[in-house]
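Sequence in, structure out.
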Amino acid sequence: MRIEVRVESADDELRSLLNWLRKDPDLRRSAVVELREQPPQEGRMGSVADIVQLVTDNGWNAANFVLALAAWKRTRPRASRVTVRRDDLADALTDCSDQQIARIIRLLEEERGGGGEGAGR
């Protein structure tokens, strides 16, 4: 399964999230976590880090991932919008409420092709 996380803020926030997730022992065992970059825009040099991408195996635990993501977000001085996407389903983590956390866990645990109700679909 491939999951993408976008942070609507400066590039250093995205790198902070990448480092946070790579330090999580459960994620390290069950997912490859990396930055995915988009090609440079016309008139600009170099690529831009766009999203954190996770590629998971069968030992994947969506709850552990979402809790790690919420823990990271709570440490940030600014309230950045964090969007989690799996296939064509997406949802935002803004206030880290129990309801948001549960909704994103459900989004990630849905069977492929299921008709889930992601808020950002």
